[in-house]
Amino acid sequence: MRSIAVSVALSTLAVCACGDARRPLPTTPSAILPTPSPEPRSPAPAPPHLLDLETPIEFGQSDTFTVTSDDPVCGARPYQYHCRYFRVTAPRDGVMVVTIRWKIPEEYPFDMAVFGPSGGVADGQMGIGLERIARGRVSGGSTYVIEVWSFLTTSEPFDLSTSFEQR
Predict the structure, then answer these.
(1) pLDDT tops 80 at residue 50
(2) pTM for the predicted model, two decimal places
(3) Which H/E stretch holds residue 17?
């Protein structure tokens, strides 16, 4: 029995050795695996602070604003829109809720994102009716930037409010 196994192994080796001599048999792995980094990856960077363009707002207040053609352009081509930036400081740790509401009969004229000191915190999600809602964990005392962009060519008002999620 053992001699049959040895014969099969030698036959297989002979067939492999007699194959195309131009293709050497692999002696090392062909793919080099990356060495894991001992350091954790840093979060996505925050957008540059545009302090002269960011409108400061008070946490917990609701106000009406517009995005106009005088506001800066944001987004990547071909999806470039005008944006309005807001700056708010979280009074305590928790889940911040940012809501924008509008009265025009369009379902999706605005969108938003929230950025913190180390990157993105939340993106706008569909709300009920004519609103968008973003939720994200925040740290008390940290300042966050709310970016609201308008898909409209005309200036339409929207209400912006911030609050903490109730548990």
Answers:
(1) no
(2) 0.67
(3) helix 2-17
